[in-house]
Amino acid sequence: MRIRFPTSVLVISAAALLISGCANRQAPVAMHQSVWQEKHERIGVTASVVNQPQLYKIGPQGLLDLAINNEMTLDLREAMQDWDNQALKDIPQELAASLEDRGYEVVMIPEPLRIEDFQEVDNRQDGYSAHDFRPLKPRYQIDKLIVVSIGAHGLTRSYYGFIPTSDPVATVNHLSSVIDLDDNRYLLHQSGSVEQAAEGEWDQPPLYPHLAEAYSKAIEQARQDILAEFQNQPATMTTP
User: What is the crossing angle of helices 209-231 and 91-101, to 10°?
Assistant: First the structure.
């Protein structure tokens, strides 16, 4: 008999959670100054698909534990489906507007980036994307591509079997990349993770307002962290 588990409850290790949705084996790459110095080049901005928040369950759990934990968190998971995460979806537009205000020519890529739409690169070298984004250069007449990826976001809670060992904590994981479309080289590749505990009693069904507030705060901090990657640069550069 095949046992199927609800997709809204995810069992995941703490290490995997940090990169869930942003999985990569690439070491961090600091912002290359060519991004700011080559002001004559056109920059495309896009983002990954942002889904509804999920409940991520960390720790060893057997099949029976999963069934029990699933039942015990049903009300919380249902409430999470109504939590607002529009601010995450708006980050690319905010970033594009900020770059335009500083004199850069920006092209918003209208559709979300789906990594499966791009061919994998054979014998990828460190510092280069594992997927070939070069077809976007002639399609949108751009030279560089900024990708904002939102990974695991929602709530995390640790368990030992069916026994919770922590309160739920709001979390948002993200990855910011700048890719040179001449050769798929990373000019930026930085990930981040935000955690925010609820202030006050968290277990308040049916709406769980303190957890919803913690999630909103985690989103705002992630938003600020992502934008800071691009705003903490000199506002004026001499065009070569």
Answer: 30
Given a contact cutoff of 8 angstroms between Cβ atoms, the answer to whether 124 and 133 are in contact is no
The per-residue pLDDT for range 28-57, each reduced to its tens digit, is: 999 999 999 998 999 999 999 999 999 999
Cα–Cα distances (Å) from 155 to 19, 62, 74, 77, 162, in that order, read 15, 20, 13, 10, 17
Rounded distance, CA 35 to CA 37, Å?
A: 6
**In the block, which residue shows the tokens 């080559």?**
38
The whole-model pTM stands at 0.85
CB 197 within 8 A of CB 150: no
Cα distance between residue 171 and residue 177, in whole Å: 20
Rounded to whole angstroms, the Cα distance separating 216 from 192 reads: 17
3-state SS, residue 11: strand
Task: Specify the DSSP class assigned to residue 75.
Answer: H
Structure tokens belonging to residue 136: 């976007």
